[in-house]
Specification:
Blueprint lengths: L9 E4 L3 H12 L4 E4 L11 E4 L1 H8 L4 H7 L5 E6 L5 E6 L1 H8 L4 E4 H15 L4 E2 L4 E7 L2 E6 L2 E5 L1 E4 L6 H7 L5 E13 L12 E6 L2 E8 L4 E9 L9 E3 L2 H7 L5 H13 L2 E7 L11 E3 L14 H18 L3 H36 L26
Parallel strand pairs: 1-2, 1-11, 2-7, 4-13, 11-18
Antiparallel strand pairs: 3-6, 4-5, 8-9, 9-10, 12-15, 12-17, 13-14, 14-15, 16-17
Helix pairs in contact: 1-5, 1-9, 2-9, 9-10
The structure holds flavin-adenine dinucleotide (FAD).
């Protein structure tokens, strides 16, 4: 089997970052796809996203490099700062020095803008690929293919890729492993227009403030006219209804009371601009993703904490790899096995590294001695090239 021999379309549950990237990779290889997205209209929420060089390299292979760069900010320098003094504890260059070292840039952009770039690119290649209002409700596999029941009718295909996020219906149908688990972290996030800040000229453009059991990340988006702000806290439990809700501003201010004026400016900017409080949820590792003609990619397969900024990156890498494997064949089941053989170890390791980094940065000022090095990211994920890594290795 090669791309020309996919008689039935590849079905993809979920039109988020993972699903759209997989669809683009497949359509570019000549494989027909149907993306089944539950939302009735296209809209991506959740503030902004950082794309490390491994993510931008993979997105470049999908032919959207220029549109992506046009929509992004290129951060020039990043620092970890002390939550009370505001002093830089460690700093490193980004911009061209990262691009020279890894051959692809580190970019930051609004999730809505990334989503638009992906949807436009898919639409230009196949205006019929994306089906909205198609919430996946049931799945049956049989000898020759897969049948998927959705709110918009039944779809038949040669295989199904579950790209439907941390609350994946496809994962539930395959493994029935219940609701996701609260990780012990909450995040308040929002995009703050620079006019809502007391000091819009802050430097550097990317910073993480480290405090005891709390961190605050900020970086510029949209041509420097806005700032993405994410404030994290370790907490005992998640007692709220649902997993994302408008922030209680008194609670947010209290959680970051006494922080340096630059961090306080971000918190007040969030309060002024509107912020949501998110519970961060994860899942135990799945030993296998594939069952026959169905497999999982992105958060559906391996949700991870955001502390390495690699959740979307891993979803994009998965998407590029699963598309390459399916386009090559020789048949759907061995292609999905090939994808899993390459992706499972890397994604599983990154989940563990994100957990460990989260603990280190939230505990540093609680348990570390004054001489312990500041726990900065070692960028170990950045080298991987999803577009060229050998499928047979
Ligand atoms: C606070 C925070 C900050 C983050 N920052 C970064 C970052 O800087 N860099 C980074 O790389 N990652 C980051 N991440 C992680 C990143 O957002 C996720 O890993 C990424 O969005 C996963 O993409 P996905 O397509 O797998 O899932 P999702 O983005 O969740 O998309 C799933 C899609 O499936 C649809 N869907 C769900 N159920 C169904 C169904 N039954 N039928 C049909 N459709 C369905 C949904 O509507 C959605 O469109 C962050 C996460 C958080 C929480």
């Amino acid at each position: 089997m090669n791309a020309m021999h996919h008689k039935q379309p590849v079905l993809i549950a979920g039109g988020g970052i993972a699903g759209l990237c997989a669809a683009l990779g497949l359509v570019r290889a000549g494989v027909p796809v149907r993306v089944l997205e539950q939302a009735a209209e296209l809209r991506e929420v959740g503030a902004a996203v950082s794309l490390a060089p491994n993510a931008t390299r993979a997105l470049d292979s999908l032919g959207i490099g220029q549109a992506l760069r046009d929509a992004s900010n290129w951060p020039q320098r990043a620092a970890m700062k002390h939550y009370q003094s505001g002093a830089e504890m460690v700093a490193y260059p980004m911009g061209s020095s990262m691009e020279q070292r890894w051959g692809a840039p580190y970019l930051q952009l609004l999730r809505a803008d990334l989503h638009t770039v992906l949807v436009d690119a898919l639409h230009a290649l196949d205006p019929t690929a994306l089906h909205l209002g198609a919430r996946v409700q049931g799945i049956q596999q049989h000898g020759e293919g897969v049948e998927v029941q959705t709110a918009a009718g039944t779809f038949r295909g040669g295989c199904l890729i579950g790209a439907d996020g941390v609350r994946s219906a496809v994962r539930a149908a395959l493994y029935g492993d219940g609701a996701p688990d609260f990780t012990g972290y909450v995040a308040w996030r929002g995009v703050v227009p620079v006019e809502n800040l007391r000091n819009p000229d802050f430097k550097p453009d990317t910073a993480v403030f480290l405090g005891p059991q709390r961190t605050l990340l900020r970086y510029r988006v949209r041509g420097h006219r806005a700032v993405n702000v994410v404030a994290f806290a370790r907490v005992e439990g998640w007692a709220e209804e649902g997993w994302s809700l408008p922030a209680d501003l008194d609670e947010l201010r209290a959680a970051f009371a006494g922080w340096h004026e630059e961090a306080d400016d971000m918190i007040e900017g969030l309060c002024l601009s509107g912020a949501f409080k998110w519970g961060l949820f994860g899942r135990a590792e799945l030993p296998r993703w594939q069952q026959g003609r169905v497999s999982l990619i992105g958060d559906a397969a391996h949700p991870m904490l955001p502390f390495l900024g690699q959740g979307a990156a891993m979803a994009i890498e998965d998407a590029v790899l699963v598309a390459r494997a399916l386009a090559r064949g020789p048949d759907v089941e061995s292609a999905l096995a090939c994808y899993e053989r390459i992706r499972h170890p890397r994604a599983t390791l990154t989940v563990k590294r994100a957990d460990a980094h989260g603990l280190r940065i939230h505990q540093h000022l609680v348990t570390a001695s004054a001489t312990d090095p500041v726990p900065r990211d070692d960028f170990a994920e950045f080298d991987f090239d999803a577009a060229t890594t050998p499928l047979d290795a």
